[in-house]
Amino acid sequence: xxxxxxxxxxxxxxxxxxxxxxxxxxxxxxxxxxxxxxxxxxxxxxxxxxxxxxxxxxxxxxxxxxxxxxxxxxxxxxxxxxxxxxxxxxxxxxxxxxxxxxxxxxxxxxxxxxxxxxxxxxxxxxxxxxxxxxxxxxxxxxxxxxxxxxxxxxxxxxxxxxxxxxxxxxxxxxxxxxxxxxxxxxxxxxxxxxxxxxxxxxxxxxxxxxxxxxxxxxxxxxxxxxxxxxxxxxxxxxxxxxxxxxxxxxxxxxxxxxxxxxxxxxxxxxxxxxxxxxxxxxxxxxxxxxxxxxxxxxxxxxxx
Length: 304
Description:
Elements: E1 5-7, H1 12-19, E2 23-28, E3 31-40, H2 47-61, E4 69-73, E5 76-82, E6 89-93, H3 94-101, H4 123-130, E7 135-136, H5 149-163, E8 174-178, E9 184-186, H6 202-210, H7 218-222, H8 241-249, H9 253-265, H10 268-276, H11 285-303
Parallel strand pairs: 1-4, 7-9
Antiparallel strand pairs: 2-3, 3-5, 4-5, 6-8, 8-9
Helix pairs in contact: 2-10, 4-5, 5-8, 5-9, 5-11, 10-11
C-alpha cells in the first residue's frame, strides 16, 4: 500500500502567511493536544520522500527515530512530524552537550545561526559523552538488547552510511532532559532529508544509471558521502559515512553485532518496498530507482 499523503487545508487567511515559512506548527482538528510540525521540501529536491524513506528504514532496522508522513500544503510537498521531545522534556542539542562536557568545544550557536562544520565534533568525543551512565538510551518500543546510549548512536551512524546522509552535524543529534527529574536520554534520530541523492536532477540520475563509466556509477557515487564527524580535531576533512560507523563500533562488539545483524536481516526486497510505497506524485521513477540502488550498494559495503 502506498504511504499516506496528508493534504493540509489551512483557512484562507493563513495560506499566504504559511506559504512564506519553511516550517510551521499546527494541530489537527481532531487532535488539539499533540502539536504537529509541517516542513516544506525545498523546490527541486526530494526532501519529502527522502525523509519519509529514511524513517521507514529506521523502523525496519529498529532504530529509535522521529516518524514522518508525506504531506502537501499550498500545493507544495513536505512532511509532517510530531515533536520528539515529550511533555516535560527539553532537547539539549549535541553542541550544548559537548560544550558542557569540555570547555574546549566551541560555544553553542545563537538561535537562528546556521550550523558550521566543527573539527572538534569527533566520533570519539561524541561516544565518550554518550557512554556516561547518566545518559540513558532513547525510550523505545524496540528491543535494544541492553545497548547504552553510545551504542544506540552507532545505529544512527549505520543509518547515515546506509542512506548516504551527510548532515549529522552537532545540532542533528540531541539529549532529552527531563525538567523535573533531571533524567537524560539520547533523543531518537531525526532530520535525515540530506540523503539518498535527493537533490540530483533526473537527467543526471539516468546518466549515472546507464553509463559504462565506472567513475559515474552508483558504487563510486556513494563512496564520496562524508559525515559531519571527524576522526581527530586536526583532520581537514570529516570521515566518510562508512568510516564513521566503522570507527564508532571499533571495540564495541555488542553494538557492532547488533546493528550489522539488523542490517543483514534487511533484504533487498524490503529495501525496494520502502521506495515502491512512495506515491508516484511524490517521486520520479528515476529517483526511486536511484535511491533504491544507493541503499543496496551501501548495505553491501557495510556488510563486507
